[in-house]
């Protein structure tokens, strides 16, 4: 099976712009979660989507949003970019059974805001 | 992360020795724990998991121990190899209804010395 893929891998944006990141989960996985990773804050949960519905949301401002399509692919959007949004954005997919929540991570998108 | 922390930020071990990486978690209701390994430039990779109804679980060269009394988790790596050099994260998982979320620790950098 192909792993989780994320596009683009690297991105440079300017403050005030908006950005959309894409994630394709492992085939058959219906859950997609997004995380922000920075040296100072570590790995922080953004949100999770399952069957096109947001199931859970972390403590991030409304500038961060996401969606999931019927084929389980997901996108996340950050509007009005700030310098502090520079981070590695990771996507993880899971089968999301009640008895298991093993997540498989993609390689991430490195976002730099200048 | 805010709720899951590690006792040591860095750990250096001699090749061939055993490594022990510790983690303290905060939510006594967490029922599922995972260890991830993250190599430079890559997303976190699943190593091993354990459910709260277990105290110990073994994988290939790795063992996870769970002490619910003191909310402590450890990862033991036997015969540590150079390829084990990476950042290791523990994560705790709590279920609230149909929602699940992983909270990650800040990570431990493991360096294997030749």
The backbone outline of chain B, from C-alpha atoms, is globular
Name the poorly predicted regions of chain B.
none
- How can the largest sheet of chain A be summarized? 7 strands, mixed
Q: Pair with the most extensive interface?
A: A-B, 24 and 24 residues
> Using DSSP, what is the number of strands of chain B?
10
Work out the radius of gyration of chain A. Answer: 13 Å
The number of helices of chain B is: 0
Distance between the termini of chain B: 31 Å
Cα shape of chain A = globular
Tally of helical runs of chain A: 0
Give the strand content of chain B.
Answer: over 45%
Q: What is the average of the pLDDT values of chain B?
A: 88
What level of helicity do the residues of chain A show? under 10%
Helix content of chain B: under 10%
Q: How would you describe this protein?
A:
With 114 residues, chain A is mainly β. Chain A contains no helices and eleven strands. Chain A is globular. The mean pLDDT of chain A is 92. Chain B has 114 residues and is mainly β. In chain B, the strands form two sheets. In chain B, strands 1, 3, 4, 8, 9 and 10 form a six-stranded mixed β-sheet that branches. In chain B, a hairpin with a 3-residue loop joins strand 5 (56-58) and strand 6 (62-67). The N and C termini of chain B lie far apart (31 Å). The chains are: A mainly beta (114), B mainly beta (114). Chains A and B meet through strand 5 and strand 10 of A and strand 3, strand 4, strand 8 and strand 9 of B.
Protein traits:
heterodimer, A: 114 residues, seven-stranded mixed β-sheet, 0% helix, 53% strand, B: mainly beta, six-stranded mixed β-sheet, four-stranded antiparallel β-sheet, 10 strands, globular
Question: Could you give a short description of this structure?
Answer:
By secondary structure, chain A is mostly beta strands. Chain A has no helices and eleven strands.
């Amino acid at each position: 099976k192909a792993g989780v893929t994320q596009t683009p891998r690297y991105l440079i944006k300017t403050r005030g712009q908006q950005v959309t990141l894409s994630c394709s989960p492992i085939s058959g996985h219906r859950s997609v979660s997004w995380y922000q990773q920075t040296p100072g804050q570590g790995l922080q949960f953004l949100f999770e989507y399952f069957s096109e519905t947001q199931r859970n949301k972390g403590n991030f401002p409304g500038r961060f949003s996401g969606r999931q399509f019927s084929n389980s692919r997901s996108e996340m959007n950050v509007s009005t970019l700030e310098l502090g949004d520079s981070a590695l954005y990771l996507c993880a997919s899971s089968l999301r059974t009640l008895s298991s929540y093993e997540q498989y991570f993609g390689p991430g998108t490195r976002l730099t805001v200048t | 992360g805010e709720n899951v922390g590690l006792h040591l930020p860095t750990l250096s071990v001699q090749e061939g020795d055993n490594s022990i990486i510790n983690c303290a978690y905060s939510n006594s209701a967490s029922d599922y724990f995972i260890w991830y390994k993250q190599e430079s430039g890559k997303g976190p990779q699943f190593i091993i998991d354990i459910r709260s109804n277990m105290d110990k679980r073994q994988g290939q060269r790795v063992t996870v121990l769970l002490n619910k009394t003191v909310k402590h988790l450890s990862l033991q790596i036997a015969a540590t190899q150079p390829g084990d050099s990476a950042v290791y994260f523990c994560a705790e998982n709590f279920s609230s209804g149909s929602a699940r979320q992983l909270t990650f620790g800040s990570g431990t950098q493991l360096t294997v010395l030749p």
